[in-house]
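Same chain as my last thread, 407 residues:
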Amino acid sequence: MKMKRYLAADMRTALRAIREEQGSDAVILSSRTTPQGVEVCAAVDLELAAGQGTLAETAALKELERVAALELEHDAIEAVASDFGAVEPGLRSGSPEPIGIEPSVGEELRSLRNLLEQQLAALAWNDFTRREPLKARALADLANLGLERSLALQIVADLPPSLNNEQLQRMPYALLARRLQVCEPPVQRSGALALIGPPGSGKTTTLSKLAARYVLEQDAANLLLIAIDDERLGSHEQLRSLGRVLGVRVETVAGPEQLASRIGALAGRFVLIDTPGLPGRDRDGAARYAELRSRCAALQLMLILPSSAQGGVIDEAVAHFGGPVAHCCSLTRVDEAVSLGGVLSSLARTQLPIAYVCEGPTIPDDLRPARAHQLVARAVELARQGQICADDELLARRYGADIYAAA
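reply #2:
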């Protein structure tokens, strides 16, 4: 074991010097305040750092680290309290109140705690990579896909204890695929399907693909297109042009009330409905569609999600328009996405079924029924094409705290 004593003006400087000289495997053994600042004793086990230590040694060092962290924080609080007490007589003598002392003390303590938490997370991650190298590799692979931290940890927790290299190549992705719900295409001989979603998500293009596919596979005379998109310039004309090409009738309705009446009068026919784009946080719009769904038993709502959008856009849309509003969803612009981790995480968490995947603008070819394993395979392919590789520091920040808490 390599042990060294460090003298510094404050705890932060001492910890930084320890990390630079001894690395993230260093363990703080003791600390005390001195007239010059602080004195910290740290050590690193060379065998453990090389991956040769035993589990008992690793556990012992982790316990030492916990105790040292508590002592370090206690000493820091005492030092700050002592400094604050030194200026208190001045306050009693009528000197001006030192505005900002208490916030600066709190900020210093928070900074110190964050630094300690980062150190503990790094130690926990390094220990985990020694104990469970294959599971650590699985976490790294799932992080490369862009999956949410909690989802990746759940998948790794479900891996068998006796995981081997061959299973590592496929099992984490198979477990991810099992968490994705898919459903049969909602286009039937009769009924109604409304496409809802954020502006620019691809609702009209998806409707065009579905209409063309219906005409080719069934009967144009049985299909009706309805537009209630009265906000986007030229949207009605776009739908009428499609109707002329396909030989399908196109109608326009004023709003949800008129739409509900029209659907009830079209029993035996299939109706495709184009709707105005609504931001994901539009709670009023979500409530209107939820009410429309409860009034029309023949109506299905399909949420259109652009795979190339930011993760926050997807999360908001699924949170407000999934579940009790939409029956299923369709993923568009998969060919434009650089990562599918965000959208797959959101759908795995909410269990919103996926009906279709759209991978281009060609009508009607770039539309296929969703398959969970194909979506996961596409996510893996995108990660490899982008050469995404999370380093140990990023992995320690992402997973270290959870691993430490579970230890």
